[in-house]
Amino acid sequence: MKIKLVTPAPAKVHTGNRTTADRWAGLLGELGNEVGVQQDWNGEECDLLIALHARRSLPSVQRFREAHPRSPLILALTGTDVYGDLEKDSEAKRSLELATRVVVLQDLAAEALPQDARGKVRVIYQSAEPPRISPPREEHSFQVCVLAHLRSVKDPLRAAYAVRGLSASSRILVKHAGAILDPDFARQLEAEQRANPRYRWLGPLTHEKALDLLARSHLLALTSHLEGGANVVSEAIAVRTPIISSLIPGSVGILGKEYTGYFPVGNTVALREQLKRAESDDGFYRELQHQVAELRSLVSAARERDTWQALLGELG
What is the average pLDDT across 17-43? Predict the structure, then answer.
């Protein structure tokens, strides 16, 4: 099958959506398909279009549907689609209407969609592969990593705020990798680095280096206001790094309602307490490790590939 996979995310910026698109292209290629990843569809020959992001991919979705009224079209929803645009944006809703199937990244996402669209929904959990040789955890600090570009929806400096003023006995250090996608954060970032000795911004990293940072860290802090189902959560599970996450459906749909590492969105004090507890309470930290380890089968590449194979089988 010849497949075109459309994502608005440019190849030069390492975002979650681009990572998803590139990984799916690899998995679909392993299933014997010819897959091309591009930002728009403009009439190129294909048997199936997969469009990532309902609102921003609508022009491609409409052009494909007009050219191929009966061909299969899969719409993959992002966090801003599920927990924002589909409530109020007519363009996002139109993409949903035109899709043959709808892919979401965790099982709570379907609950946020219109009732009449839920029959189209298929859940595909994102996979992640650990490095062949697991690097050791950081020895000189209790390292908390943040892997998030600097834009408002990620609340990217929340972990930095949470470690301000910790007692001298604490070994917590936050290392943050990500690009400045919102210029308004540049000045805030500079000021935070000057004032906060427990916070270090590393700038944008390659995927390989970001995964190494994650594997060496004692915790991942995910502080987003919303996520569709973050790649970095799957990656943390794969490398056995416990997660402290904002209490959002995009994380609960992967980690489960019983996971003990949540904090209320935007609550600096609650995040600080969770980080301190993870550092000082061995029982709590071991429980986080156990809960993450129990989820490893959920993020296997074989599972994701098999789910895609089943979906393509539905479409004939």
Answer: 93
Global pTM reads 0.93
Statement to judge: residues 114 and 189 lie in one domain: no
Pairing of strands 121-123, 101-104: parallel
Strand-pair partners of 37: 5
Span 198-211, mean pLDDT? 95
Q: Which residue(s) pair with 35 in the sheet?
A: 3
Residues 272 and 173 in one domain: yes
The total domain count for the chain is: 2
What CATH number did the domain enclosing 236 receive? 3.40.50.2000
Q: Compute the average pLDDT of residues 256-260.
A: 97
Give yes or no: residues 174 and 65 share one domain. Answer: no
Q: DSSP states of 93-106 as a string? A: HHHHHH-SEEEESS
Cα three-residue angle 228-230-184, rounded to 5 degrees = 90
Q: Give the gyration radius of the chain's Cα atoms.
A: 20
